[in-house]
Design goal:
Structural class of chain A: alpha+beta
Helix content of chain A: 10-25%
Radius of gyration of chain A: 19 Å
Oligomer: homodimer
CATH architecture of the largest domain in chain A: Alpha-Beta Complex
Order of helices and strands of chain A: EEEEHEEEHEHHEE
DNA sequence: AGAATAGTGTCTGTCAGACAGTATCGC
DNA sequence: GCGATACTGTCTGACAGACACTATTCT
């Protein structure tokens, strides 16, 4: 493996977030092999130029093969690189962030993984392998900045097909970890191009009926 | 070069911006070698794991060796990747953005470069090599979003050591390519932690003297 | 009736854009 | 005085946070 010094290793890591019991969670895997065996890490893997169209494809393939998850939308966060961040040699790691509803993620242990589980995004409770603590910090920062700055479109990826505005607000609150005023929230998203009111469809309960919404077709991100 | 299919090529490209005659300019090089010989491109080069500490070092080294420019601050924009974006094989290119005062850039033709010159950032007037037109578009978008959103700290990299608020405003206007109200601009940057008033130092001219400022020590970016 | 949640009205402070006004220089 | 630029005061409209209020359902 002399090539390692001439050609860097190219990895992809994914910070997959979801809301679990009103808290922002991140999906971690326990590594089954060296290096960093038994340590927890963000799911990730190595680029395979012969089968990947680009690094996003790599990320999707890795998530499929390691934790059986299909990721619709990925967002690049940052690139990490250097000779010492991975013991196998000079490496480049491109970090992606993603959001998915908790119940859509049927995380299953696959190859090279001992366990898969959700952890609190702000304090996973484990030392992470490699420089993944940095990765997680950066992914969190980008995610929260997005939700705060641009109107709260992003968490739409976390919603089920039909949802109420209150549910959307609670999701935002869980991500930001602080309460949001109801009136202000509704003013801000009022008339948002990607929110479609399902006229006539209401959610019932032991209270006034709540208007249901869905994500409009063609919803995409792109800054 | 069978390795090309196993190990991707890792490049770094740099979109170096400056204000030239009240317009936002970008530094381009004309390639002296295949591929894309004679075409204009963003300055860039290949990672050398044996001498680079990380990809930012690669970017600095490349700018030094190809166009004789020292870059103090680099910002990662995006990663481009795939089998076809460069004829030499499966490649990854990490794009960085940078700002530097026009007169500090003593761009000199060095190895693998025929010419170096500044072009209008919005319409360079040349078809760019590889996917560098995309690169330029993304770098521009990130740069302008930064200046608009976060308070206008960024263009501080474009200022000489001492400058007036009017000069800073004109720089912002050149980057955004639209006028800014003077009072609003001054209100926004008033008391900014990185702006230091040089009490007593004034710029004279055929008009009222203008207060000089400088960038406070320890100025850094970090979102 | 009472609990719970949905949804709205309104006050207030902040801030950006717009624009005009005053101040200070060289000539 | 005149031209030019520096700098400030103020009005207005947009908008977010705070908070209270009404409305509608189930039990």
């Amino acid at each position: 493996m002399k090539n390692i010094t001439l050609f860097p290793l190219v990895f992809v890591d994914v910070a997959l977030f979801s809301v679990v019991e009103d808290r922002l969670g991140v999906l971690l895997v326990q590594r089954a092999q060296e290096p960093a065996q038994h340590q927890w890490a963000l799911p990730g893997g190595i680029l395979k130029p012969e089968i990947d169209d680009n690094l996003e494809s790599t990320a999707r393939r890795v998530m499929r093969s390691k934790v059986s998850v299909e990721i619709p939308h990925l967002e690049e966060v940052q690139t990490f690189s250097g000779p010492n961040r991975d013991p196998r040699g000079w490496s480049v790691s491109v970090l992606y962030g993603a959001l998915l509803p908790y119940d859509q993620v049927n995380a299953v242990v696959r190859n090279k993984v001992e366990k898969v589980d959700w952890f609190d995004a702000d304090s996973p409770g484990h030392a992470l392998a490699f420089d993944h603590a940095n990765h997680l910090t950066m992914a969190l920062r980008v995610l929260r900045n997005r939700i705060r700055a641009s109107s709260p479109t992003l968490p739409l990826h976390l919603m089920p097909e039909k949802f109420t505005l209150t549910e959307l607000q609670k999701t935002c609150q869980s991500i930001l970890d602080k309460p949001i005023d109801k009136a202000a929230f509704r003013r801000r998203i009022d008339g948002h191009p990607f929110l479609e009111k399902l006229t006539g469809e209401m959610q019932r309960g032991a209270h006034a009926p709540a208007q249901l919404y869905r994500v409009r077709d063609g919803f995409a991100f792109d800054v």
